[in-house]
Amino acid sequence: MISKILDAWNLVEIQDPHLLDFSKQAYNWCVTWFGIPVDELWEYEILIASMSGCSRQKLFKYYTIYIDKRNKSIEQKMAIIAHEVYHRVTIPKNSLRRIVWVDEMVAFLVSDRILMMSGLEQYAEYRKQKILERCNNNNARGAQGTA
Fold first, then answer.
1. Domain count of the chain?
2. Structural domain of residue 61, as residue ranges?
3. Region at 40 (left for phi over 0; alpha for psi -120 to 50; beta for the rest)
């Protein structure tokens, strides 16, 4: 039944043991930093989908982490897993999620730290440079509009 649902939504479950082990390590680090979630017994699955995200299935008591299928490299997938595992740990903690842009910024910083702790310093630096370029481009466009 589950495989029919996954097929219908064009979802693929992650089977890569390296990514699954990485997600467990990321989860452990997030629990260390942010505390044990009240729903710590809820499992999570990781699926390739048309977008990235983390959803909480209250009825079935589990989480689904989605990795955007456009992310092909192992580093991209690991960055998304780290980012979404942060959300998995903190979703039940409303205090950390009140201001969305702050929550997303913390998720980025947490994923960055997890990448560095996993030996992916160069990729973490690359991501930061891309974010800074995007911010600089947005600031330049905004300044042009006010002139």
1. 1
2. 2-146
3. alpha
